[in-house]
Amino acid sequence: MSKTKNINSLPKLKPMPGYVLIEPVELEKKTATGIVLPDTHDEKSQKGKVIALGGPQITDSGKKVTPEFKVGETVIYKKWGGDEVKFGVSGKEYIFVKFEDILAIIK
After folding, report:
1. Structural domain that includes position 14
2. pTM confidence score
3. Which tens digits make up the pLDDT trace of 86-99?
């Protein structure tokens, strides 16, 4: 389960090796058929913009794993992966996700 932490401002961050910092994209508040979803709708976003990348992940066998995505790209990640953090006075939410939890790049 992920935990949420408050941090005062968005400093220049470099995630640890094997991690990526993502700004989640807000989910639509309305369905394709026009039904407005209530604020209590708990669906978590699985799509976000890559803000920062950590260094290559080193596997147990010593192999370096580098991500195929770059800063600025939009990705889809596992629904319950990652650790949420909130930055700034407004409490904007970001999420740290492991490279292996990125499922796809949206082109």
Report:
1. 4-30+42-106
2. 0.74
3. 877 778 889 999 99
